[in-house]
Amino acid sequence: MKVFMIGGTGLLGSAAAKILIDRGNYVKSLALPPVPSGADIPEEMELILRDANKLEDNEIVSLMTGCDIFVFAAGVDERVEFPAPVYDYYYQYNIAPLKRFLPLAKKAGMKGAVVCGSYFSWLAKQRPDMKLCDKHPYIRSRIAQEQVCEDYADLNFAVSVLELPYIFGTQKGRKPVWTILVEQLSRFEKMPFTMYPAGGTAMLTVRQVGEALTGACETACLAAEKRQGSFRAYGISCYNLTWREFLKIVYRAMDGTPDRRIVDIPKWMFKAFGLTMRSEYKKRGTDLGIDPVGLADIMGMNLFIPTSDCEELGCTNDDIESAVFDSVSLSVKAYKGESELIGMKGE
Prior knowledge:
The protein is 44% helix and 17% strand. It has 13 helices and 13 strands. The strands form 3 sheets. It has a 7-stranded parallel sheet, sandwiched between helices. Strands 7, 9, 11 and 13 form a 4-stranded mixed sheet that branches. Helix 1 (11-22) links the parallel strand 1 and strand 2. The mean pLDDT is 94.
């Protein structure tokens, strides 16, 4: 199988490329420079350091020709800050590229595509009563992204979206997204306990994301070859932890505290804090993809996803505690300015 990827030097893309290549597949990737210093990028991957959005359509088709599967492992998530209206930026980085690249992939004769999405889409579809798309621009954009993917799927072109939850693991030279969490928890530094919602979340390791991406590529390729291509959204989870279980690991990584006391914060208090956050972000001209008041409902629930889809895609067991520990340890260094790291970017 030959794979054409956008985002092959990122945390997820490079993990998937390594597994794909280890299984005997060919991987070609377009990615934005610079490559993180010391990053474990597979030497066998054909790497083109160019901005895909600045290449002409015929250049993209030429690069795609001869490949079987297109992987979109780029874009941005809700933690990247933008000015208002934030939805326009999600459209620019997560939706518009697929409206352009999916038809080009079909023109190049590819058999399908796999896209990195968000588990907020899984939740929005499972719980329409929560009206998450009405409250949160980011979630609305991810549902719109899935609709674009579904629109381009047909019997000869299978398209899959991985609805990814919390992901843990590190890449040398790249700033972990969990630096934000370390900053948030620093507010409780002088308190004997940490206040946090009573819910929980689905999660998995970077390696398991690579396995899921690889499995989805193989599945899409086989389906198209049999003229059984279609659209499929996979709910991704290998582990489901409560916030309390998760934060115990986080604190061990942050400062060695073996059993930090975690106190459940009432939903009304979280919403009150959300009002303050709204005000703070507005003052600095930043629009929010996830409304902090509405976030209280999400954080207060167990957003757990069955592991069956990951099992179907061939994800194997991994050490989630070590992955969380490594992510948080590097985040602490980033927060303290002890490491020079490349941050998140759209591709």
